[in-house]
Amino acid sequence: MKKTDLLVIGGSAGGLLAATMARKAYGEDIEITLVRDTERVMVPCGIPYIYGTLQDLKKNVIPDAMLTNAKVNLLIDRAAEIDREQKTVKTAGGSVIAYKKLIIATGSLPIIPTFIPGHDLENVFPVMKNDEHLGVILKKLESTQDVVVIGGGFIGVEFAEQISLLKKNVSLIEMADSCLWQAFDRNYSDDIESLLGGNGIKVMTGTRVKTILGEKAVEAVELGDGRTIPADMIILGLGVRPNSALAKECGLEINPKGAIIVDQYMRTSDPDIFAVGDCAEKRCFFTGKDVPLLLASTAAMEAKIAGSNAFHLRLIRANKGTISTFSTKIFDKTFAAAGLTETRARQEGFCIMIGEFKTMDRHPATLPDAQEIYIKLIFSRCSGIILGAQISGGDTVGEINNILSLAIQKDTTATELNTFQAATHPLVSPSPIAYPINAAAMNALAGNCKHLNEDLVI
After folding, report:
1. pTM of the prediction?
2. How far apart are the first and last CA of the chain?
3. pLDDT of 45 over the 80 cut
4. What's the CATH class of domain 2-109+241-309?
């Protein structure tokens, strides 16, 4: 039997960072072991870019040097069983590892639409993080011309965009009325769909897949309205679900959505076991509701908490839930969002005020690489606290969105953002007299004052 002080199951973003954070928190005093079931770990958010920009799995690998430099023992095997009484983990390869503390970072599994006939035909591919599986998709694309992507979330949109770079015929099917509807309001999603369509991708929203047709391998897709679309390959981008089977089998508490229930320190119902990343429960920053929001950035935050607190509660959680911070780049335009959309804020019953602004991301705007920025900020009308942000434009909007994510976490008000001090330079940022965060916040306040004056007249 092998013994270790801290055992981490899972080697992607959550597991890797939990192990290395624990080393930083506890120094050389503890032995740390990480067990994972793949030789190589893919950069999770980089997976779509294997198929267009990179065209090589080896260029999308998280290096093991992060573990070896932190003196973390690495075992390539599959964790098969957790014995909470004996505090041991058995692996598929026959090893038994005794632990003092355990962190589960088993991630997520793709949602398979078993309700669609033909979902199990050849060349219908869910998006798994396994490098061998991803390699099969890459090889198959060489002899494929008609590709259908089912699902218009981030996975589906990014796969569609990247595969289209290979000059394939790409169709993107989304059952909701718009792509990326959970992250963006309609004016942004309309822009996204226009970009996709303008670059040759056939976008079909409000469309249901009825049947995947074919004898042995996929040949076409039948839609709910009876139309058929030719397909040599299908990418299933319907999202993911928590990979919590190991936790459930050992008796840990699981919520109705299948995620492991954790407290603010990422402890499970067993005080010696923590869970982080996609397998762990997420709660909305604004409402406290359980939300199935599975992001590598959220996993990284949770991993730091679990790694620091594995043996002693050293790190007090500085945020009260998941903010929902996203960014993506579609062809030459970046889209980012944080917090609640206007639609979601109204559904939750918030009384809101909105500030919008357009500007250029360089000054003067005549600089050769200048791009237009469009920003939308959503505030509580009564308190002025920021609830959400959406922004599109050049590459700078990704980091502008990170500023807004922190503003949401810190309950920053429109007044504070209006006077927010930003470092600017003509070659790298918008103008100081038209900085998008300040300007949008000022417009929200100005619009709210107008409404207040109208209320007084009434």
Report:
1. 0.93
2. 78
3. yes
4. alpha beta
